[in-house]
């Protein structure tokens, strides 16, 4: 690529707003909807503290505003406090995405003192029984509630994050009540996305249409009733939608994802698309990954989309939807997302949804190799 072409790319592509830092794939939970890759990156492949600190400094220089410290379970990293300190030093807003079952009050206090800005706590159920059934961890619900109380006692903002599916969709009202009880400022109710391990469990996770509609009505009513008291974000299930969601708010538009081993990804599931070349943050500066990595430029914009999308007034709203889902359902990552009602594959999606929702399958839990769960 010529220097002129490189310069043009760098001038026309805005910097990312967010960095999703997947510090580790290790996790104490065994959730059947896990969105991490089927082939997990092991502890021995994880980047060092110095690697992550350099990446955080590069993120700040690139223009990133917020860093989501994620996993797996980020608390499995012994250097989590050091990484939060680096975020604070570089002026990066830090959001800890955690299961909340393996962080002691002392460590949480250390994270707050290091400059942690926000905690996003996952709940698998609104009571002990459902939480244990989904997470595979006994006593997880009480640990999460105790952790939430500690977060609020320190004055940290708290978001509850819930992945909805057949096993817990009946608890939408209970999740809302739980968020209020725990003093959360925000509640995210997102239906399961069928990639990675969740795809393997689609027949056990897919809810019936009437369950989805009932849940959506409950959320809409609560959003009106609790406006100004609790912010409720709702992500509808793709397979029941008329239009697709914009993939990461546009492929390579707002977010950069770094895996535990350092690969730079445009989206969490991008590695499912064959033929993409992913650059490593161990070998390339974050600036170059964002602007010049072949994977990031593969589906930027909308020029690659078919004619139906080119003439659609939603083209620059949803960017044709999800590339991974288009590949999975049509065999072509450049096709429109088949959940779109204008897609020639849309009826196939509706048929598939009915079939999957009618299946009665047990969970295939996400089990990690022995010795890989904890730090």
TrEMBL record:
Keyword Iron-sulfur assigned: yes
Cofactor(s) the protein needs: [4Fe-4S] cluster
Domain of life: Bacteria
Similarity field: Belongs to the radical SAM superfamily. PqqE family.
Chain residues that bind [4Fe-4S] cluster: 27, 31, 34
Pathway(s) this gene product operates in, as recorded in its UniProt entry: Cofactor biosynthesis; pyrroloquinoline quinone biosynthesis
Protein's job: Catalyzes the cross-linking of a glutamate residue and a tyrosine residue in the PqqA protein as part of the biosynthesis of pyrroloquinoline quinone (PQQ).
Domain Radical SAM core: 13-231
Catalytic activity: [PQQ precursor protein] + S-adenosyl-L-methionine = E-Y cross-linked-[PQQ precursor protein] + 5'-deoxyadenosine + L-methionine + H(+)
Database matches in CDD domains: Radical_SAM, SPASM_PqqE
Enzyme class: oxidoreductase
Assembly information from the UniProt record: Interacts with PqqD. The interaction is necessary for activity of PqqE.
Pfam families per UniProt: Radical_SAM
UniProt name for this protein: PqqA peptide cyclase
Cofactor note: Binds 1 [4Fe-4S] cluster. The cluster is coordinated with 3 cysteines and an exchangeable S-adenosyl-L-methionine.
Gene: pqqE
């Amino acid at each position: 690529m010529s220097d002129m072409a490189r310069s043009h790319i760098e001038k026309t592509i805005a910097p990312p707003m967010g960095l999703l830092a997947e510090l580790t794939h290790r996790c104490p939970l065994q959730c059947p909807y896990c969105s991490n890759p089927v082939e997990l990156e092991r502890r021995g492949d994880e980047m060092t503290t110095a690697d992550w600190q350099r990446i955080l400094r590069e993120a700040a220089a690139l223009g990133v505003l917020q860093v989501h410290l994620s996993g797996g379970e980020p608390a499995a990293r012994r250097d989590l406090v050091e990484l939060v300190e680096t975020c604070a030093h570089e002026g990066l807003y830090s959001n800890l995405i955690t299961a909340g079952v393996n962080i002691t009050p002392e460590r949480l206090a250390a994270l707050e003192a290091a400059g942690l800005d926000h905690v996003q706590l996952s709940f698998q159920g609104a009571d002990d029984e459902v939480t244990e059934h989904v997470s595979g961890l006994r006593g997880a619900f009480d640990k999460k509630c105790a952790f939430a109380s500690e977060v609020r006692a320190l004055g940290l903002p708290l978001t509850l994050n819930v992945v909805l599916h057949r096993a817990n969709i009946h608890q939408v009202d209970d999740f809302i009540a739980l968020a209020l009880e725990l003093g959360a400022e925000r509640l995210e109710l997102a239906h399961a996305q069928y990639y990675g391990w969740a795809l393997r469990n689609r027949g056990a996770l897919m809810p019936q249409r009437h369950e989805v509609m009932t849940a959506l009505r409950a959320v809409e009513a609560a959003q009106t009733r609790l406006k100004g008291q609790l912010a409720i974000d709702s992500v509808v299930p793709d397979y029941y939608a008329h239009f697709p969601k914009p993939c990461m708010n546009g492929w390579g538009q707002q977010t950069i994802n770094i895996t535990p081993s350092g690969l730079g990804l445009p989206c969490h599931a991008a590695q499912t698309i064959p033929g993409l070349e992913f650059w490593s943050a161990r070998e390339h500066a974050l600036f170059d990954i964002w602007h010049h990595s072949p994977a990031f430029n593969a589906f930027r914009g909308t020029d690659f989309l078919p004619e139906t999308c080119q003439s659609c007034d939603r083209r620059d709203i949803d960017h044709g939807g999800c590339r991974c889902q288009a590949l999975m359902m049509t065999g072509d990552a450049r096709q429109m997302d088949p959940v779109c009602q204008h897609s020639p594959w849309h009826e196939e999606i509706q048929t598939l949804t009915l079939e999957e929702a009618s299946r009665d399958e047990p969970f295939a839990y996400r089990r990690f190799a022995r010795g890989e769960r904890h730090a």
